[in-house]
Design a protein that fits this description.
The chain is an alpha/beta fold. Helix content is 41%, strand content 22%. Strands 2-1-3-4 form a four-stranded parallel sheet, sandwiched between helices. Helix 1 links the parallel strand 1 and strand 2. The longest helix is centred in the middle third of the chain and has 11 residues.
Length: 88
């Protein structure tokens, strides 16, 4: 499975998935995630709720409707979480 991680802080998760044979692509918050999503399709993604988070989720779903996206955040603002859930 091809997995995009737009959150480089989850090192244990990256290692766990790699040990199980998944192909991880790990991007930092400072990288432009749309460059790689234009070239590759992913089966799943773990995305930090960065400024690009919801837009990236929509782009991944557009390229592969079966892509499973999980938003990861430590943001305590419920409004941001609700907006992400409404976006899919």
């Amino acid at each position: 499975m091809r997995i995009l991680h737009y959150n480089d802080e989850e090192k244990d998760l990256h290692a766990y998935l790699a040990q199980r044979g998944h192909r991880n692509t790990i991007l930092t918050a400072g990288e432009d995630p749309f460059v790689i999503t234009r070239r590759e399709a992913f089966d799943a993604a773990f995305i930090g709720l960065h400024p690009h988070g919801v837009k990236l989720m929509r782009e991944l779903k557009r390229r592969n409707t079966d892509c499973r996206v999980t938003i990861i955040t430590s943001d305590t603002n419920a409004r941001n979480a609700v907006a992400a859930m409404k976006a899919g």
